[in-house]
Amino acid sequence: MHTNRFRSMAAWLPLVLLVLSSMLASSCQKMEEDTIDNTDYSARDKQIIEDYIRANSFTGTRIDTLNMVIIVTQPGTGALPVLGQAVSALYTGSLVASGNVFDSTTSRGDQPFTFVVGRGQVISGWDIGFSRLRRGSKAILLIPSALGYGGRANGPIPSASVLRFDVEVKDIQ
């Protein structure tokens, strides 16, 4: 009786080992995908943004101390949002390097996206950029990687990407 049980277990052993090795390989691959690039890209990002501004002949730019640039294309009215206020906006996000659009409210029926300023609900570049835009403003936010997704890839956004967002502030509450 013990011999049959041993044979039965021995028959399953290769399968168990295969499953375990597959899980281990998958875990190692996942660890590689989850690695974060901690390189300081601030000088590179600043140069990319400056070159992009020059290549596109943008004027009226405002360079933030964090190498972020806010180009107001249509001034808004009213007060600036303050910490804790909800901002609703339309936007299109693209990669400065390729111009590829990675997200847009246009793809969701032009329904504004709403977030609370200063609560970390969005990337830092948005908290900074939108805190300087009034209701009705349209702007281009050029966001260095450190204020975007940093050294971690996020879906179609490669790690250490400089981002462009074309935004329109629809409401501040």
UniProtKB/TrEMBL annotation:
Keyword set, alphabetical order: Isomerase, Rotamase, Signal
An annotated Gene Ontology molecular function: peptidyl-prolyl cis-trans isomerase activity
EC number: 5.2.1.8
UniProt-listed Gene3D superfamilies: 3.10.50.40
Secretion signal span: 1-25
Lineage: Bacteria, Pseudomonadati, Bacteroidota, Cytophagia, Cytophagales
Coiled coil feature spans: none
Pfam families linked: FKBP_C
All residue ranges annotated as the PPIase FKBP-type domain in the record: 84-173
InterPro entries documented for this protein: PPIase_dom_sf, PPIase_FKBP_dom
Originating species: Hymenobacter perfusus
Enzymatic class: isomerase
Family designation: Belongs to the FKBP-type PPIase family.
Protein name per UniProt: Peptidyl-prolyl cis-trans isomerase
Catalyses which reaction(s): [protein]-peptidylproline (omega=180) = [protein]-peptidylproline (omega=0)
